[in-house]
Design brief:
The complex is a heterodimer of chains A (234) and B (474). With 234 residues, chain A is α/β, with parallel strands linked by helices. Helices cover 44% and strands 15% of the residues of chain A. In chain B, helix 9 crosses helix 10 and helix 16 packs parallel to helix 19. In chain B, the strands form two sheets. A six-stranded parallel beta sheet of chain B has the order 1-10-7-4-2-3, with helices on both faces. The model of chain B has no long low-confidence stretch (mean pLDDT 94). Classes of the chains: A alpha/beta (234), B alpha/beta (474).
Chain lengths: 234, 474
């Protein structure tokens, strides 16, 4: 299967290991992976601010970069949802043509139907599935299906598992008090639990929770699900 | 509520100690109960879809169904009034009170009566008004608006209600329930809550007996039978609609459903979503008009109905589930929204009903997590409506700094080399984070991640992966 790897702009910039891990997982699963160097941003920041014309320009650029593949895969539920759920509603003269786009876990479970990636991670992990993965892609179970097969990993449930981390893109800087309050509630719910790390499907959520935890000197080791799945064979 | 913008109100609400604790506890309990009640998810989705179809179908045939409802309700003996706006609805209500020489009114819970500000109008006319829903009574005694669509006193701790009842209802704790200190010991909580409820009941019984007129809302107006349906747990609505000699029901026309056959779907969806009950304790179907009044309210609904993108907001059945699951609501409560309706549906509805000048910022105060859309029992994609409001707001605005930045950002997106070059300024920006508003607002309470030595795409370019693929294509 020929797939194009879409690495969201902030992952490219701030979390390149997540990109490398995603590439490793896809290649290990037998995909022929193509990484367009001209890729930039899916356009979600202007879209979420209501600036749809600018978002459409980003979508046109995105579509031009990702042609000629069977699927586009990305290690972000939020950016995948932008392409899958919101591109069709963007204004424009011509229809947008983009190959089917999937979040990594969604792709591995729904398309490849491959749950075991031979990964090992010893310890107790909290799971934070990004809200767009659950509420827009309707693929909230996929990360669990994969992580349950990681040997040595014990999943730690939290009362706050389905709570938003408070990131929300531009929301995090337009309404910092609310954003921080939301993230703090999540961290507070983690406090009494016995865990070694937090596994997340979206690095943006990880950035929010880690940024909050670090400022408070509350140790929180954040791993992206791709890093966990790439664990044993990197 | 005071405070012009949501930002101001949110700051005030967040600074109230214990408020978010109370809200998180109460809303999570409601969501947990709801989730436990839904056993068959596929069946739930089918009912949800069915409900959405019924509601949209109703809205598309509203003229016909409204005419049918009015005709049948009149045939059943109801006196039907139509009110175009809040002012007209209040005038009709006051006229009915005057015609019957009413000086004391008892009310069942009704959000529409809040929408038209009925209580202040009645009180200004010298009429005593008593809210008979426990939560509504509590907020009425406090002089507050309901803090939640279905749970008006959700923001209050039992301690606060205890203090209120001591002051306003001359309540005294029975000796066996007395405790030391300010906080109620956990073991005594439910016993004290129960005793407070009984105290409210004693107070309300006297008010029920002397009321000459009962006001209620309606959960459903059935077009083909001309009947009203009301759901509740406290029997106060049953009393309000039967004990006083006059009954006035007030409802938006969006409460219509076509037929009695459609009712079962909603009798299941509404209580499950609201409180996690399979069925509410009391379902009243009122078919015998007997001179009862129905005030059908428009108040901006026709205009919303004509809005092809947003008219499905009228299919809301006011269950409050979207508030329960909303992280914004959980932090600021209903009073943070500054209007009658609150939570995600309030943020989408208020700009329609109360104007974009007053409520235009609500749709922006959301992380767009979409939990509201997932839980909505009639399948309204609420967070998408918020997104559309943002788009509308931007279209209405002139050139702004934000727009110029977005335009520059789009320009960069189209030019990968420039995009990458712009990103290399991050470490510099980081060291000046106090000067840049965006980074300052992030950094006030959060650390920023460190910039790695090489970006992912730089690494890919070094590895020569992309070029290989391009050559294959050629």
């Amino acid at each position: 299967m020929r797939v194009a790897l879409f690495v969201p702009c902030f992952i490219n910039q701030l979390f390149p290991d997540v990109g490398r891990a995603t590439l490793a997982v896809l290649e290990n699963a037998g995909c022929e992976v193509y990484v367009p160097l001209g890729q930039t941003c899916c356009g979600q920041p202007p879209f979420n601010s209501g600036l749809v014309d600018e978002a459409r320009r980003a979508a046109d650029h995105f579509a031009a970069q990702f042609q000629g593949v069977d699927a586009i895969v990305t290690p972000s539920g939020s950016c995948a949802a932008m392409v899958r759920c919101h591109y069709p509603s963007l204004p424009g003269q011509t229809p947008l043509s983009v190959p089917p786009t999937y979040e990594l876990c969604q792709f591995l479970v729904d398309v490849l139907n491959r749950l075991d990636h031979g990964a090992t991670l010893v310890g107790r992990g909290l799971i934070h599935v990004g809200c767009h993965q659950r509420n827009e892609l309707h693929s909230g179970d996929a990360p669990f299906a994969l992580l349950r097969r990681v040997s040595g990993l014990e999943l730690v449930p939290s009362l706050s598992d389905e709570w938003c981390c408070g990131f929300g893109g531009t929301f995090s800087v337009n309404y910092p008090r609310l954003s921080v309050a939301m993230g703090s509630r999540k961290l507070a719910a983690y406090e009494p639990l016995d865990y070694n790390f937090l596994i997340t499907t979206d690095s943006s959520c990880g950035m929010q929770l880690q940024g909050l935890a670090e400022r408070r000197n509350q140790g929180l080791r954040v791993l992206h699900v791709a890093e966990v799945l790439a664990g044993a064979h990197s | 509520m005071k405070g012009k913008t949501l930002e101001h109100r949110a700051r005030r609400q967040l600074s109230q100690s214990g408020l978010a604790d109370t809200l998180y506890r109460a809303t999570q309990r409601a969501v947990d109960k709801r989730n436990a009640t839904i056993e068959d998810h596929a069946e739930w989705e089918r009912r949800r879809d069915h409900a959405r179809q019924i509601k949209l179908h109703t809205l598309c045939r509203i003229d016909e169904l409204l005419a049918q409802f009015i005709e049948r309700a009149q045939a059943n003996g109801f006196v039907v009034h139509a009110a175009l706006d809040a002012e007209e609805a209040r005038r009709i209500a006051l006229r009915i009170c005057r015609d019957h020489g009413v000086t004391r009114v008892i009310k069942g819970k009704s959000m529409v009566s809040e929408e038209i500000a009925l209580n202040p109008a009645l009180e200004a006319a010298g009429i005593e008004v008593t809210e008979s829903d426990l939560g509504e009574l509590i907020v009425q005694l406090l002089g507050q608006a309901p803090a939640h669509i279905t749970a008006p006193a959700i923001h209050l701790a039992v301690e606060e209600i205890l203090t209120l009842f001591r002051e306003r209802l001359a309540y005294e704790l029975p000796s066996e329930l007395r405790f030391e200190g300010a906080a109620i010991p956990p073991r005594q909580r439910s016993a004290i809550a129960r005793d407070l409820t009984l105290a409210a009941r004693r107070f309300l019984q006297r008010r029920f007996l002397r009321a000459q007129l009962g006001f209620s809302g309606a959960n459903f107006l059935i077009a083909d039978s001309g009947r009203l349906v009301l759901l509740e747990n406290e029997a106060n609505i049953r009393l309000s609609t039967t004990l006083p000699r006059v009954h006035v029901a007030i409802a938006g026309f969006d409460k219509l459903i076509p037929s009695h056959d459609d009712l079962a779907t909603f009798l299941h969806l509404l209580p499950t979503s609201s409180t996690g009950q399979r069925l509410t304790s009391y379902v009243s179907e009122i078919g015998d008009g007997d001179g009862r009044h129905i005030i059908l309210l428009d108040n901006g609904r026709s205009q919303l109905l004509a809005d092809a993108e947003h008219y499905d907001l009228l299919s809301c059945i006011r269950c409050g589930a979207c508030s329960n699951v909303c992280p914004i609501f959980r932090n600021i409560g209903g009073h943070g929204y500054g209007g009658v309706y609150s939570g995600p549906i309030g943020a989408a509805l208020l700009p329609h009903l109360g104007g974009i000048d007053a409520y235009g910022d609500l749709p922006f105060a959301s992380s767009l997590c979409g939990a509201c859309s997932s839980i909505c029992p009639v399948g309204i994609p609420i967070h998408e409506r918020l997104l559309e409001w943002r788009e509308r707001a931007q279209r209405a605005r002139g050139t702004s700094g934000e727009k110029l930045i977005a335009r520059a950002f789009a320009w960069l997106i189209e030019r990968p080399a420039w995009f990458a070059a712009a990103a290399t300024t991050y470490p510099l920006a980081q060291s000046f984070s106090r000067l840049l508003p965006v980074l300052r607002r992030w950094s006030s309470e959060r650390d920023l991640p460190e910039m790695p030595r090489q970006t992912f795409l730089e690494w890919i370019a070094d590895e020569g992966r992309e070029t290989q693929r391009r050559e294959e294509e050629r």
